[in-house]
Amino acid sequence: MTMRGVLIGAAGLLALAACDRPLRPPTHTGVCWRLAPAMNGAQDFKPMTNSVESLQACAVQLEGLRLKHGVPMTGAYQGQLIFVTDQEISAAASSKARRYPLFTPEQRAEMDAGLERLMAQEGR
Fold first, then answer.
1. 36 neighbors 76 (Cβ within 8 angstroms)
2. How many other C-beta atoms lie within 10 A of the C-beta of residue 111?
3. Which residues contact 89 (CB under 8 A, 6 or more apart)?
4. What is the pLDDT of residue 58?
5. Domain for residue 18, yes or no?
6. Range of 83's domain?
7. Which letter does DSSP use for residue 28 in this model?
């Protein structure tokens, strides 16, 4: 193998290793973050709200965005990632860590009904 081939192979391995790094959430106290495209095309956390009192309160805000835009949302609160999909709202310490549900299906249905009422009122 030529030196050029070795260098190309090494560059490819480095790129794969970089992609395989787990996503780490910000740890700022009381800030609810959402994952959004950055200027360089990568994903980056953008602050959504300050003075948020809990992980669940941040998750509710992300659920509101999911309902409004119809796409899954990823966010963070004090070192925990929050994943909001059609199926569940869950949290984990990193993108590679085990996720745990934040709300029961019944709690989520009640929350969604309230969020949809609020969105309908704002639409007037």
1. no
2. 18
3. 59, 62, 63, 82, 83, 101, 102, 103, 108
4. 98
5. no
6. 24-122
7. -
pTM of the model: 0.79
Residue matched to tokens 């704002």? 122
HSE, CB side, 13 Å, CA atoms: give it for residue 64: 15
60 belongs to a structural domain: yes
Are 59 and 82 within 8 A, CB to CB? Answer: yes
- Using only C-alpha atoms, what is the Rg of the chain? 18
Sign of CA dihedral 43, 49, 55, 59: negative
**Predicted confidence (pLDDT) at residue 99 exceeds the cutoff of 80:** yes
Q: Any long-range contacts for 65-71 (C-beta under 8 Å, 24+ apart)? A: 65/34, 67/112, 67/115, 67/116, 67/119, 68/119
Say whether 48 sits in a helix, a strand or coil: strand
What does the pLDDT look like over 26-81, one tens digit per residue? Answer: 999 999 999 998 777 788 999 999 999 999 999 999 999 999 999 999 999 999 99
Cβ(73)–Cβ(84) under 8 Å? yes
Structural domain count of the chain: 1
